[in-house]
Amino acid sequence: MNRPNIWSEGREILFEDNHLLVINKPAGLLVQGDATGDEPLSKKAAEYLRFKYKKPGEAFVGVCHRIDRPVSGIVVLAKTSKALSRLNEMFRDSLMTKTYWALTGRPPVPESGTLVHWLVKDTVRNVTKAYPEKHSQGLRSELKYELLGMAGNRYLLQINPVTGRPHQIRTQLATGLGTPIVGDVKYGFIAPLPDVSIALHARQLQLQHPVTKELMKFVAPLPDAPHWDAARAFYS
Q1: Which segments constitute the Pseudouridine synthase RsuA/RluA-like domain (predicted)?
Q2: Cα(104)–Cα(124) distance, rounded to whole angstroms?
Q3: Distance (Å, rounded) from C-alpha 33 to C-alpha 20?
Q4: Cβ–Cβ under 8 Å, residues 184 and 170
């Protein structure tokens, strides 16, 4: 059995125990399979575990949350059904703290604040629209943001989503602040990035371990991409 040439500990694999596998997902990789038929993160994780533990059959991998294909950063996978069930509840009830970093082409005004919109997903076009007032078909969506500073010729924002909606950060920054994320042409940025990713990274996640109840914090290094180079100066 050949080892899947995908991950190394400390870079892509941020944490692993009997119940959890925490991955720093590369941009461009699906978390869960879709109509494209492209191999998703969940499948790669199953291959990795099957090789590592020499399992004769397929390893259990449960998906409890997702980040968009062009987004990089932390994804928590469950290795047991017990962990999956409890993680599903935690993500559904927003019982964790999520922190994203984003690069924009212009600074937000004001430099920090809270955005509240009602988001409506167009599943045919795979795009989300944000409404500033309550919408009958919309889901209330809230995030907090702050400008960390300039990163080269871009602006580095830190975002803490209070809710977890499809394309929430992307559409709220574009609609609420007029600051689309670098490379995100779907939501108004002028041009794509060479690797067709967008400059949005799931940087940090804090949660209670679903089995041991220990408070855990995971931090994901930025991708090895030129558009992120200047942002590394903001590592604490």
Answers
A1: 19-174
A2: 27
A3: 20
A4: yes
Dihedral sign for Cα 222, 123, 119, 95, please.
Answer: negative
Judge whether 67 and 202 are in contact, CB under 8 Å. yes
Q: What does the pLDDT look like over 192-226, one tens digit per residue?
A: 999 999 999 999 999 999 999 999 999 999 999 99
Nearest-CA neighbor of 139 among 204, 97, 94?
Answer: 94
Q: Which of 235, 193, 220 is nearest to 26 (CA)?
A: 220
DSSP characters over 35-85: TT-PPPHHHHHHHHHHHHTT-SSPPP-EE-----TT-EEEEEEESSHHHHH
User: Which one of 17, 34, 68, 229 is the catalytic residue?
Assistant: 68
Distance of CA 100 to the CA centre of its chain: 7
Kindly report the pTM of this predicted structure: 0.94
- What pLDDT does residue 2 have? 45
What is the DSSP pairing of strand 112-122 with strand 96-104? unpaired
Q: At 185, is the secondary structure helix, strand, or coil?
A: helix
Tell me what percent of the chain is helix, strand and coil, each rounded to the nearest 5: 20, 35, 45
Active site annotation includes 184: no
Write down how long the chain is: 236
Whole-number Å distance between alpha carbons of 152 and 105: 11
CA distance linking residue 124 with residue 226, whole number of Å: 33
Nearest to 216, CA basis, from 224, 226, 204: 204
Give SS3 for 119.
strand
Burial of 169 from C-beta contacts in 10 A (0-12 / 13-18 / 19+): buried
CB count, 10 Å around CB of 132? 11
